[in-house]
Here is the input.
Amino acid sequence: MKWVLLFEIVYVVIILLVIFRVLLDTRSGVKALAYILFIILIPFVGMIFYLFFGVNYRKRKLYSRKIVEDEALRQEILYQARNYSEQVIHSGLLSSDYHNMARFIQNTSTSPLTGNNSLKLLLNGEQKFPVLLEALENAKSHIHLEYYIYENDETGNSIADMLIKKAQEGIEVRFMYDDFGSHALGKNFIKRLEENGVQTAPFYKIKWYTFASQLNYRNHRKIIVIDGKKSFIGGINISDRYRNEVPKKDNLYWRDTHLMIDGPSTFYLQYLFLCDWNFSAKNKLQFKPDYFPNYPEEVAIEEELVQIVSSGPDSKLPVIFYSMMKAIGSAKKQVLMTTPYFIPGESLMDSLIIAAKSGIEIILLIPGVSDSMFVNSAARSYYTELLRQGVRIFEYQKGFVHAKVLIVDDVLSVVGSANLDYRSFDLNFEVNAMLYSKSVTDKLKKSFYNDLEHSREINPTDWLNRPKYIHLYEKMLRLFAPIL
Here is the structure.
């Protein structure tokens, strides 16, 4: 009995220490409460889960974004970028409604607002991959590729073959992949690339002795930079599942959105790639003009206006989350959102409710078919409150909608890798493109309304009248939403 009592005392002390760690280390009170409930209600498992996946490494300088060792040169680059951004802001092409937003992004992530960009919207893999292969074929100097999921299938091998071809032509080719998201690639795939001149690096390679932090912090970005001029950003990974013309086992239609940028905004995507590469690879890269041929400079400013927004454990602030909040807060007529994972948290919920009660039309498009039962059920717990406030919610029926798109009024839209959930806002390395473009926003709107034609609108009355036990189940899962 004494040993049992001693064990119980030790266990309680450990639990209290872990809870103390949660309170000190977790910025979000809601998230801290979720971890504490998990730790108390599920003995041992909850505590181990937190230690593996919940420790906040944002404070621990696990990552450095400094690619310029010369501090004077670094400050000069930042100074020029800030001046260029102000030049674009005052060019007359950007509505005064968005001046503060552009400055907020510039001040929090050093990403300048850029003009003179050419934009091409790419819907689904069947549009993206032919355009991507053509762009890779035309590369003259270098190719930088960074992906969360890269699969060893028909699509992955066709791009790998092109990378090898360009490397053998003398083009610098660098291939970076998330070690968790692309875990199925295999050593032979990487070996084939390296033997043919392609430099490779796993982002934050998972090792058993640092498994916790490495599994929790994932590089969810999808970035390709070609010659420092042309770039790709969005939600489409490298996989057959994104191509609906390719036969698949589940025969599931995938709906996603990507963007090709030709112009100065590629500057910041290149900067992000070099930062991520230097964190992951043994052979470090330094700032050199060849990588930044479209470096922002004082020239006549023309459309399209683009600003890249990034955040992750390297960010002092959750910049993507704040930029989303600011975008919604700027709406005067309408907010349209598409996301595969909707775990908004209280702050984003408040923003949506405030907008809805201010007479702004809010439409949310989410999957009818989800690849995560628990996340989907937790997401549903938020619908009741939104429906009561007049938000319209549609569930996509044609297949799985994986696009991450935000459209505000007629000019502002966002395309990128970030979902509307805790993981994207606080844990993952993410990147979005803020598009101050009427033409692209119009195209995204048409695509959004086309998706609604393949969707089912949730009827508020029917939703509220569902059995009580379903509401209870969803509310219970919502308690753990911050850690899903």
In short: The chain has a mean pLDDT of 86.
